[in-house]
Amino acid sequence: MARPRTGSVIPDKKRGGFTARLTYHDGNGNRKDVRRHTETKTEANRLLNQLKRELEDGGAKSIDADRLTFQKLADAYSEERLTEPVYRGDEKVAGLRSWKDQQRRLKLLSDYFGKRFIKTISFTDLEGYKRQRLHQPTYRGTEMAIATINRELSLLRSVFGFAKQNGWLIRSPFEQGKYIISTAVEAKRERVLSREEEVRLLAVCEERERRHLRPLLIAALDTGARRGELLRLRWQDVDLPNGLLAVTSYKGKKTTTRTVGLTARLRAELERLYELAPSDPGGLVFGIKAGFVKAFDTACKKAGIEDFRFHDCRHSAITRMVQAGMPHTEIMKLSGHSVFQTFARYVNATGETARRGADALDNLTRQLEEVTANEFVN
User: Looking at the chain, which runs of residues are DSSP E strands?
Assistant: First the structure.
C-alpha cells in the first residue's frame, strides 16, 4: 500500500509570499519534502496541484527532477548512450557507430541549454535554438545546412526521450508542437567533380605537405567508398595481384563486406604505398586515422575548387559509373547501397549527361520526322 502524501500552502514569514509544500515517500520509502515559493496564494495552490499531478503521473523521479539541469541530463545521456560501438562477429551489440559525431552535437546543445532546468524547456525554446543555428555560419563561412540542424534536433529529441524513460520528464517539449524537424526542406547535395577540377586537385596533392591525400582521393573517386571505409582499410583487405579490395561497411547493426575492383591508377598508388609500408597485414593502407579535412579544404582552395566536400567524391564516382553505362544493380553492389531510393540520391546529372539527354531527344525527333515525311510522300 502506497504511503499517503500531504500538501499544503503556508505563508512564508521570512521572504513574504507563500510556499507550496508537498510531502511524500519515494520508491525506497524515504520521506521527501518539496517546497516551492511564490508571491501569491493563488500561484502557490497552482504549483501544489501541479506537483501532485506530476507525482501521480510520473512518480517520485519526476518530482526529484525539478532541479535537474540539461547539462546533467546530457552527461547522463552521454555516459549511457554515446559510447564506442562493440561488435561480436559481424553484429553490433552495444554502443553507437557515430558516437563521436553525436558527442560533438551534444556539446552544442549543452552550450545552449546547459544551465536550464529540463522542465522549463518548452517547444518555443527549441524554435529559438533552431533560429540561432540558422543564423550561424559554418567554419567554412557558408550557410548552416538544414540537414545539420535537423541532426542536432533529432539528438535533442532523443535526449528528452531518455529523460522520459528514466521518469525525469512526463512530457517532452517536442510533443508540444509539430514540424520543427523537416527533412523535406533539406538541400540535397548534387556536387560532382569535373574532370578538369580533378586534374587540378590531384596536381595540388603532388606537393609534399598534401602527398598523403592523393592516393586517398583516387581511391574515393575510383571506388565510391565512404571516407570511414577507406580510412579503416588494412593491407589484409588488399589483393594487389588480382586487383581487388575488400571494403567493410559498419553502417547499421551488422557489418557487411563487398568486393571492389582497382582501376589502373589506384592500383599503381597502392603498389607505391605497399613498398613504403611496414610488413604488417593489419596496418592501415592510407596511414590516416583522422583529421585530414583541413588539408583537404586547403587543397581545394589552392586548386580553385569551390563547394566540394570529400563525401562528394562518392557522388562523383557513382555518377561516373552511371555515365559509363553500368547497370544500377551492379553499381549498388559496388557502392554498398541496399535501397534504391538512397542510391538514387547519389546519381547526379552533369552537364555532359544533360547534353546527351537532349541529343537523344533530338535524334528521336528527327527519326519521327523522317518517318512522317516518308509516309506523306508515299
Answer: 6-11, 18-25, 31-38, 86-88, 91-94, 238-239, 244-249, 256-261
Same domain, 40 and 84: no
| Nearest alpha-carbon partner for 218 in 207, 233, 230, 209 | 230
Let me know if residue 120 belongs to a domain: yes
Distances from the Cα of 109 to the Cα of 4, 115, 145, 157, 175, angstroms = 39, 11, 16, 11, 18
Domain boundary (158, 185, 212) is at 185
Task: Kindly report the backbone phi and psi dihedral angles of residue 246, in degrees, each rounded to the nearest multiple of 5, phi listed first.
Answer: -105, 105
pLDDT of residue 78: 95
Q: For residue 320, which amino acid is it? A: R
pLDDT at 1: 37
- State the residue range of the domain holding 145: 70-185
Q: Are residues 301 and 362 in the same domain?
A: no
In a domain, 342, yes or no: yes
pLDDT, tens digit, 9 for 90 and up, residues 61-92 = 666 677 889 999 999 999 999 998 887 776 77
Task: Tell me which H or E stretch contains 200.
Answer: helix 195-204
Residue 375 has pLDDT above 70, yes or no: no
Residues 332, 279 within the same domain? yes
Q: What pLDDT was estimated at residue 378?
A: 57
pLDDT over 70 at 329, yes or no = yes
Residues 126, 157: Cα–Cα separation, whole Å: 10
- The rounded distance, in Å, linking the Cα atoms of 100 and 20 is 44
Q: How many domains does the chain have?
A: 4
Q: Is the pLDDT of residue 376 over 70?
A: no
Q: Are residues 276 and 314 in the same domain?
A: yes
Nearest to residue 160, comparing CAs of 148, 149, 173, 145? Answer: 173
Length of the chain: 378
Each residue's pLDDT tens digit, 138-179: 877 788 889 899 999 999 999 999 999 988 888 899 999 888
Whether residue 103 is found in the same domain as residue 246: no
Q: Could you tell me which residues come within 8 angstroms of residue 378 by beta carbon, excluding any fewer than 6 positions away?
A: none
